[in-house]
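Protein folds are increasingly written down as discrete tokens. With that in mind, we are printing a sequence and the tokens encoding its fold.
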Amino acid sequence: GPEVSSSLQTKYYTLTESGQAGIEAATATLHALFVQATEHVLANQESLAPYFHIPAALWPRIQDSWARQYVIKNDTISGRLDFALTDHGIKVYEYNADSASCLMECGYTQDAWSNAAGLGSIGRSNSSTLFTQLTAAWKSKNVQGTLHLLCDNDPEERYHSLYMKATAEAAGIPCVLVVGVQDLHFDSSDGTTILDGQNRPLRNVWKTWAWQTVISQYEARNAGAAATSGAVQVMDVMLHPSVRVFEPLWTVLPSSKAILPILTQLAPDNPYLLRSTFDPADIPLFTGGYVAKPVMGRTGANVSIYNGSGDLISATAGKWVDDTIVYQEIALLPKYEDDCYVQVNTWAIDGEYGGTVLRIDESNIVGLNSGIYPMRVVPDKCLSMAISASSVLPKYLNAVKKDLAVHTLNIARHVGNARYLDASLPFVPTFEAKYGHEVSTAQQSKYYTITEAGQAGVEAATDILHQLFLRATDHVLAHKRELAPYFCIPAGLWPKIQHSWTHHKQDTISGRLDFALTDQGMKVYEYNADSASCLMECGYTQDAWSNAAGLGSIGRSNSSTLFTQLTAAWKSKNVQGTLHLLCDDDDEERYHSLYMKAAAEAAGIPSVLIVGVQDLHFDSSDGTTILDGQNRPLRNVWKTWAWQTVISQYEARNAGAAATSGAVQVMDVMLHPSVRVFEPLWTVLPSSKAILPILTQLAPDNPYLLRSTFDPADIPLFTGGYVAKPVMGRTGANVSIYNGSGDLISATAGKWVD
């Protein structure tokens, strides 16, 4: 219906900012963990496949779906994680990696209802970027031709499909909605191509049909059940070798309950997981109780809940009575003041948090008919609504000092003298010119290891802090009058920063967080949101060195996907025309630029490296367009030049220092209204030390933050000591460290004395 409410009273829920941060971190971390578990299943198919109840003949197709990663593995748009918020943190029930249920409610109706009901001033939306994220996801997929969106003749499936259609069309993809399959038919000219009712071939398909439907039809057909003569079934579309399907076939694995015991084996200490098993002999380990659910079950069917004494306390009916059972440690949904149980459902869009929707029911098993209510995110001190602080404060994943260990490695001479980098890669010769090509010139070297738990903590901290620095940036721009003076940025640049945030918020590719691993957990020093330093070493040389030195069998890489992620990021930006990569005449800046250039070119973007600015010039025909040495206009720029360089040049020019007549300066490029810059101007804010005290104000209890202040009167609060660093400082310059007695124990020189 169209009404806000048919009754005089209704309800809504609020979640604290700390709780929201925990949910976002859990979403990104668990998506990655479910993907890792999928890879594990496919690597151990012989022993694990029987648990999944998937026909043997479909496994080669699943393997192909996964292995062809540049075509299919990354063909995911969205997936939904189902959680319980418990007194011990957030616990995941399962990952619906192949479901669109609740998508539109999350991304549109809950905010529209909140605004209409007068809740717009209470906290903030949890999902205001979901539509934009979906559009960005579609842009990154390089869909060629028409996208057909297939759904059953059901109102809910239809409106979710229309919502997804709108996001794909916003990405510039022509779309067609197909309800049911009755209008689909095989092309009479070849007997294999599937056509829609307008005789358009199906090449790209997004669907609400579950892969389980395909499995059921596949089993029926192989059991001798024939389709109506010439009729197209769902399986014919979704298994067609010429049809690209979103979500791809491999998502049937993370969507299966059979993945849950495998997750327990892979990450037994992960705080988001509930221990799960196939073996009923393990049930006594679940002292608080357990849940029995069928491997193939959906929509809460055939679920049984038992208490710690083994008594059945809740159960649902369904068609999976004879299915294999997974036993999962109990974590009952919390019940709130309205006497309803609440399940938290979050969306992962391209693997990143997109939004949250709440499923509400009087039963502790959420099913098809469970209700949906809106949720707002409020400051930690605001606890006036339904969800209390005690039930949402997250247990943050973290890493501590002991997770990291150093090891000595003896290196044989023939190994040490060997070339370990691939000199055919465009970025390698410059690196070798600076650092040499040998594995090691010494007979001993060292390397470090981090535990899986520590790695999970590093990943969670990275995701949470990136979002927190973005929130702090938004806060600064919303309170420019009082906060801008702390940043030492010329007043004339603030409108440009605001414009950059409003129109180019998504034009970020990479940023580097600097941490200390302490006995109390990870602590962030700062966010270099505008720096490429160490990028190639992270994404290429450390793994190449490890393999050459014989460490390939020790643990795993922490960054093997970095290049692929950079390429995916570039694909999502919809860069039109040539990308110019600008760097100073410095070997390190050059090889980082060449590494990033390779990632952009892998995304299909024509790219040009520009070293220095001496060959850049203004177009004589208009006096404003900036051209490179080959007279190509600069429209898209990635750079190693820091925004601080721009600020310095801007201040100098406004102080009367003129550039060499007609010469192009870095500031002319990076502030040009017709040039799109990666990383955009607004990143000067999260990169500034001035953001640190603001983070302390916004998230005083965040365990990753070190308390910071502008006021020296607050120093006595830092009883263990403190660090003094300049707002505009870079590369560790002008940093002073004092102990708890106020004695200077370490200091660096630099140009930011004042």
In short: Residues 17-43 form the longest helix (27 residues). Residues 382-394 have pLDDT under 50 and may be disordered.
